[in-house]
Here is the input.
Amino acid sequence: MAERKTGQGGYTYYVSDEQLAAFAKLTLLERLQWLDELRRFMLLAGTPEIAERWERLRRGETITP
Here is the structure.
């Protein structure tokens, strides 16, 4: 397992070699469809508070002010 480094603000996550291999087997269209499905889900599931947290993460800030 790779070493996980965390910094101040933002977020990190780990993707296994198996997950990368499975994603690599998808066609470009399948990858884009997967990404769009995830984007739509996140927009539907997110509250205004969550949207503000996402924006803070995009700016590299911590989730809480």
Remarks:
- DSSP finds three helices and no strands in the chain.
- Residues 25-65 form one domain.
- The two ends are 32 Å apart (CA to CA).
